[in-house]
Write a sequence for this structure.
């Protein structure tokens, strides 16, 4: 989840529930040492009583709480004899807390929010309830985008519903582009040339802020060049993977991304250690001409020196008109196997993640909806969102839906690989092969 992810994408704003926040690294580290779980499945389905919900605590939680309170009030009104108790838990300590809940049904919630990269691990731990039947019968589910649904699907079964999604695009300085007579890049080659032109003519600026620890900023370059992080073994949906980061196409993408670390763009001595948070900070503070940031980075940038002097376009792919695939991060909502209120808990899950609630969460927090029709409405009202929505609709991708991904993130395998290359300690071929070996070990555990 984002924890480490959190380092990579630390919570820059209240809107980062961190779509990315809940997405990956540091929190994942906690996953590795969390207690093992036993089967605490319940066969009870009580039709009244108290339902407990755990949601993530945001930096500014009041707007989120207001939306959830309204949804809960409506649910309680429609379900006589029910009471919903919502607790907001810290994102940084979620891994241990949720694992402990899997082992202790008496204190466990019925419904939880979790980062979408955590799904496979929680399923493996036996904590989440298979709600495939209810999901398939849920009318709203037909409008959920495929990548969001993929993040919930393990072994062909569905383990929850998506709450919101986050994706990255290219932020650029309109004042700098005007001064240097530049146009927004439309290909990867143009992106690199533009970055180096900015650095050449404005030595006080990084052309494109990049980070050696910014895994999710690097992924689009790998994917755009035809590479992948891993490939699925056996039939689609098997959720068994082997590393592909050392394939020829993936290596090409790695070479492109790491070529951006140098005195002609973003000096390795400075940028090799940066995560996503650092690149956005550099852009927001006026020290970079461009940056790869999420829709959730908006608040941090608006609070910086470049307010009113930037725009966003999709990150360009290799060919003109192509959009580089971007990681679709976000959070999901699921029901615990231990619930004694299965029907009510699933109903509540659908209320909390339904179209009405997602629309209100966007208005309150800026969280992008996972329903394509609702997202389209949002983009019509807010032009800022359009590049992110186009990226989600055209080229969004997800990390391997494997419990091993948590270990890969926690061990910082990919950031280490990038930093080894940028520092000159290893060449691309050696670094990617070493990373692939470590990834395969994680997938096989």
């Amino acid at each position: 989840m984002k924890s480490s992810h959190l380092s990579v994408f630390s919570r820059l704003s209240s809107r980062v529930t961190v779509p990315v926040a809940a997405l990956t690294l540091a929190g994942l580290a906690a996953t590795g040492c969390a207690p093992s779980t036993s089967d605490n499945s319940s066969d009870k389905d009580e039709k009244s009583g108290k339902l407990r919900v755990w949601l993530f605590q945001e930096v500014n939680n009041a707007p989120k709480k207001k939306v959830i309170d309204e949804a809960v009030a409506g649910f309680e009104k429609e379900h006589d004899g029910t009471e919903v108790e919502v607790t907001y838990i810290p994102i940084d300590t979620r891994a241990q807390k949720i694992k402990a809940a899997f082992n202790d049904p008496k204190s466990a919630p019925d419904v939880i929010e979790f980062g979408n990269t955590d799904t496979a691990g929680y399923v493996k731990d036996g904590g989440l309830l298979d709600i495939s039947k209810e999901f398939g019968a849920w009318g709203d589910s037909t409008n959920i985008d495929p990548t969001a649904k993929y993040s919930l699907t393990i072994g062909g079964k569905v383990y929850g519903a998506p709450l919101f999604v986050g994706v990255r695009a290219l932020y650029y300085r309109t004042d700098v582009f005007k001064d240097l007579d530049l146009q927004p890049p439309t290909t990867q080659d143009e992106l690199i040339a533009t970055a180096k032109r900015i650095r050449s003519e404005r030595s006080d600026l990084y052309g494109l802020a990049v980070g050696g620890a910014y895994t999710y900023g690097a992924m689009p370059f790998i994917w755009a060049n035809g590479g992948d992080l891993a490939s699925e073994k056996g039939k689609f949906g098997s959720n068994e993977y082997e590393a592909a980061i050392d394939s020829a196409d993936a290596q090409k993408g790695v070479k492109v991304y790491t070529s951006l670390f140098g005195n002609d763009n973003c000096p390795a001595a400075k940028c090799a250690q940066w995560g996503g948070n650092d690149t956005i900070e550099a852009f927001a503070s006026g020290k970079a001409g461009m940056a790869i940031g999420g829709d959730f980075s908006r608040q941090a940038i608006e609070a910086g020196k470049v307010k009113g002097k930037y725009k966003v376009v999709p990150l360009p792919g290799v060919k003109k008109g192509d959009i580089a695939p971007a990681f679709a991060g976000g959070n999901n909502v699921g029901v615990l196997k231990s619930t004694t209120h299965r029907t009510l808990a699933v109903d509540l899950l659908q209320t909390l993640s339904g179209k009405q609630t997602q629309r209100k969460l966007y208005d309150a927090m800026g969280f992008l909806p996972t329903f394509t029709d609702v997202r389209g409405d949002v983009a019509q009202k807010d032009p800022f969102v359009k590049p992110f929505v186009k990226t989600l609709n055209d080229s969004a991708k997800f990390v391997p839906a494997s419990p091993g991904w948590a270990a890969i993130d926690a061990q910082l395998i990919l950031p280490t690989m990038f930093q080894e290359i940028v520092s000159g300690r290893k060449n691309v071929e050696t670094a990617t092969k070493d990373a692939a070996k470590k990834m395969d070990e994680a997938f096989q555990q």
